[in-house]
Amino acid sequence: MPKMYRAMRKDSDDKPIVDSSGKGLGVRGVPVNGVTDVDLDSEGCVLLNNKGMSVAPRWRDLPIFLISKRLIDKVPGARGSSNLYCFTMGGGNFQDGDVSESLTLRVDSKSHGVICPMSLMRLADYEIELASTREQWGVDED
After folding, report:
1. Burial 109-121 (b: 16+ CB within 10 A, else e)
2. How many separate domains does the chain show?
3. Distances in Å between the alpha carbon of 35 and those of 16, 59, 95?
4. Residue 11 lies in domain
5. The pTM is what?
6. How far apart are CA 110 and CA 44, in angstroms?
7. Low-confidence ranges of the chain (pLDDT < 70)
8. 53, 113, 122, 127: least buried by Cβ within 10 Å?
9. What is the pLDDT, as a whole number, of residue 102?
10. Edge to edge, what strands does the sheet with 103-109 contain?
């Protein structure tokens, strides 16, 4: 599985919180502050158009507004909420590849990719699949 990073809020068990705010383990299927992460068809299924949950190959590649300001000594200009943590999972090269039996990583630049469904599925099922990766994520801010 490719190694990837995502800034997310942490739950009481030190794993990422599952939510669709854009700052958790999930996607915005309906607009949050006017932003969505995926497009849906008329049946509520996620379109297979390489959109999904954003990730990066290194935590320092995350946008500075998502890197917690408590890490400003490591990333000048970091201005994210102190409630955000840099989570990682996987260990392979940051390239297109399977994340699970139903999820795949699609790399769209050297510093960004998305975890998206491999096949047509309802938004609720996609969210369940993303949540099923929760135990694989751990904080890495070194």
Report:
1. eeebbbbbbeeeb
2. 1
3. 21, 22, 26
4. 4-139
5. 0.95
6. 31
7. none
8. 122
9. 98
10. 53-55, 112-117, 103-109, 97-98
